Each structure stands twice: as C-alpha cells, then as structure tokens.
Amino acid sequence: MSDKAENASNPLDLVKWIIVIALLGGLVYAYSAYEEISVLYRALAAVGIVVVSLGIAATTQKGSDFFIFAKDARTEVRKVIWPSRSEANRMTLIILLATAVVGIMLYFIDMILVWVIGLITNIGV
Known about the structure:
With 125 residues, the chain is mainly alpha-helical. 81% of the residues lie in helices and 0% in strands.
C-alpha cells in the first residue's frame, strides 16, 4: 500500500478526536467532581456523553473503518458452526483428563530426576 492510501483521512479528523478525548476526560472529571448529584443523573449524563463521543468518533475515517470491521466481524461470527452442549462437555472432559495425565507424568519425571541427581551428588532432599 502506498502512503497516500493510508493517510487519505480528513484533516478535521484530528480535531474530532481531540473533541472526543476532551468530552471523555471532562466526563471523568465531572463524574467525580459532582458527587452530590444523584448517581442516576450522573449515569444518564455519562451515557449521553459517551453516545455523543461515539457519534463524533464514527464520523472520522478510523471510526468508520472500525464500524465496518465490527460489522464484518459480526457477519463472520454468524457463520461459525458452534458445538452442541454435549460436544462442548465431552471436549472439556477430554482436556481436563489430558491435563491431569500430563501433570501426573511431569510429577513422576520430576521425582525421578530428583532421585537421580540426589544419587549422583549425594545430597538428600
């Protein structure tokens, strides 16, 4: 890809991102600064500011690219063939059993190595 294709964004995108960051930063400050106001009203204001911030961010090139990516990802997730409950349970049990067997094998290998090294060095553990 050429540099021109990657940098083909609107010059106002930087201004929009600064506004988004300022809105969210102001939200964090205001939420803690106005503790005397009801949590319900602060939460509603927070949701409103986040929605406005997302709306502004969506109008930028990176924001629209993200929403296209999210839409495509959702489409791909719908194409996945998910296992049934019995298949998921069976695979979980197989993994647990294999993990236990490997753990026991490593324990015995470790005990044998400790025993062999103890015989070679005459150090009892």
